[in-house]
């Protein structure tokens, strides 16, 4: 008889190696330039299905916040979209000076800071956005406590992350182990519940296409923690369809 599905792991992943995505030296190296981030983002140009970036923007705008802090904004694409949609008070912090430079080049307010020690007063923001960045924190609880502190009571953290089975059709070709993310679709709700009142989760799945083995190898090479596996990529008979499995959380401050 098949084992019952674990509700915390709806995609049925098996845990194995723990990622080193939250090693500060590796994070600093990875985001010293935008090269790796841009190479990984390019895969999403082939998206077939719901686009989490769009779900994220719509979710934040539906909350109608007057003030937003985005932590770990990368190149600032979301910030620009939010400001163009009418958000007047948008601030961003990123630990990478290069990312801050890119956000400022869009005319947005950004400064270098660690989300684990935010340079803002208690209750300063209606909304905090953390997209694909919480798995980089060496001390997740310290970061979540800081984000809670700078939110007003009733304000919301909107966080996006990947499932431990994100792109599993690709990674299973080179590695038998599943990957345990420090903040994932599977473990994120429990982490947020330690700091917030209500927490909701919305899973979003879509399909992406890698044209051939070379494209797959290039994508793997751009991974900050698993790039070394690219050398194991086998030949492919044709394009490879891979599942993007992500989750958006909305967590409300009591
Ligand atoms: C995977 S990128 C995500 C970028 C963007 N949010 C997106 O969705 O494309 C992670 C970002 O988080 C930033 N970051 C990592 N650790 C951080 C920390 N402790 N405090 C602030 N930013 C951090 C990185 O420099 C990078 O810009």
Portion in helices: 25-40%
Q: Domains counted in the coordinates: how many? A: 1
CATH fold group? Rossmann fold
* Quantity of strands, as a count: 10
Any idea what the CATH architecture is? 3-Layer(aba) Sandwich
Global shape: globular
Query: What is the CATH class designation?
Result: Alpha Beta
Bound molecules: S-adenosylmethionine
Poorly predicted tracts of residues: 1-18
First and last CA, distance: 43 Å
* Estimated structural class: alpha/beta
Biggest beta-sheet profile: 8 strands, mixed
Overview of this structure, please?
The protein has one domain: Vaccinia Virus protein VP39 (Rossmann fold, 3-Layer(aba) Sandwich). The chain has an eight-stranded mixed sheet with strand order 2-9-10-7-6-3-4-5. Strands 1-8 form a two-stranded parallel ribbon. It is built from nine helices and ten strands. By secondary structure, the protein is of the alpha/beta class. Bound molecules: S-adenosylmethionine. The site of S-adenosylmethionine (SAM) has 20 residues, from strand 4.
Helix and strand topology:
Elements: E1 17-18, H1 24-30, H2 35-42, E2 48-49, H3 52-62, E3 67-71, H4 77-84, E4 89-94, H5 97-105, E5 109-112, E6 125-131, H6 140-150, E7 151-162, H7 168-171, E8 179-180, H8 188-193, E9 199-210, H9 213-221, E10 240-252
Parallel strand pairs: 1-8, 3-4, 3-6, 4-5, 6-7
Antiparallel strand pairs: 2-9, 7-10, 9-10
Question: Summed up, what is this model?
Answer:
By secondary structure, the protein is of the alpha/beta class.
Which features characterize this protein?
single chain; 9 helices; eight-stranded mixed beta sheet; alpha/beta; disordered N terminus; globular; 254 residues; binds S-adenosylmethionine; 26% strand; Rossmann fold
């Amino acid at each position: 008889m098949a084992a019952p599905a674990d509700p915390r792991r709806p995609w049925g992943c098996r845990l194995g190696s723990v990622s080193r995505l939250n090693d500060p030296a590796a994070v600093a190296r990875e985001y010293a330039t935008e090269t790796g981030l841009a190479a990984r983002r390019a895969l999403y140009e082939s998206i077939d299905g719901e686009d989490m970036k769009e779900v994220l923007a719509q979710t934040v705008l539906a909350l109608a916040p007057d003030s937003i802090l985005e932590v770990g904004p990368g190149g600032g694409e979301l910030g620009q979209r939010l400001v163009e949609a009418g958000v007047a008070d948008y601030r961003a912090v990123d630990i990478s000076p290069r990312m801050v430079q890119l956000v400022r080049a869009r005319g947005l307010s950004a400064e270098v800071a660690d989300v684990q020690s935010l340079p803002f007063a208690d209750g300063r923001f209606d909304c905090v956005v953390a997209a694909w960045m919480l798995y980089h924190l060496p001390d997740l609880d310290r970061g979540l406590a800081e984000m809670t502190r700078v939110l007003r009571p009733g304000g919301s953290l909107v966080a996006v992350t990947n499932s431990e089975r994100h792109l599993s059709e690709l990674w299973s070709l080179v590695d038998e182990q599943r990957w345990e993310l420090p903040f994932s679709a599977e473990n994120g709700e429990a982490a947020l519940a330690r700091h917030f009142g209500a927490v909701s989760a919305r899973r979003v799945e879509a399909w992406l296409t890698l044209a051939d083995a070379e494209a797959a190898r290039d994508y793997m090479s751009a991974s900050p923690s698993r790039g070394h596996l690219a050398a194991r990529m086998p030949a492919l008979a044709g394009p490879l369809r891979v599942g993007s499995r992500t989750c958006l959380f909305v967590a409300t401050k009591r």
